[in-house]
Design goal:
Helix content: over 70%
Largest sheet: none
Radius of gyration: 16 Å
Shape: globular
Number of helices: 6
Number of strands: 0
Structural class: mainly alpha
Distance between the termini: 20 Å
Strand content: under 5%
Number of domains: 1
């Protein structure tokens, strides 16, 4: 089996993390209860960055790449946030779909940058823990 496709214990931990983070991110848009506005508006941004850090680390499971992965994810999500300022007929139907809303978003909000940073920092910390896990099982 090629190295890219080999499911190592580290990758199993990434898959488990993705199986937890993904539904949490989706459900954050439907949550009702204490802190509902914050959960709807901002917790998803944290989980969004965290998700992309995990997904890219699954593809590139290299401890030396962790910082570059998280900085790249943060940069990309910031670029997508700025893209929300650009309302074009081309992007409108994409943003109207559920997947488009989740990936591209619909409105520009300055506060999202803080939560993207938090998500990337948490992603960085968790990826480092996952990479340490590999050492523990050897």
């Amino acid at each position: 089996m090629t190295k890219l496709l080999k499911i190592t214990p580290q990758r199993w931990l990434i898959i488990l993390s993705l199986l937890i983070i993904t539904p949490l991110g989706i459900l954050s848009k439907y949550y009702s209860g204490l802190g509902e506005k914050w959960v709807h508006d901002y917790s998803g941004a944290i989980l969004y960055d965290f998700f992309w850090c995990l997904l890219i680390f699954f593809i590139i499971p290299n401890r030396q790449a962790i910082t570059r992965i998280t900085l790249g994810v943060f940069s990309a999500t910031c670029a997508l946030e700025f893209l929300q300022l650009w309302q074009t007929p081309l992007l409108a139907p994409i943003r109207a779909s559920l997947i488009g809303k989740f990936i591209l978003g619909t409105t520009f909000v300055w506060w999202d940058f803080l939560y993207y940073a938090i998500g990337s920092v948490l992603g960085w910390l968790w990826l480092r823990q996952i990479s340490q896990f590999r050492k523990l099982i050897r």
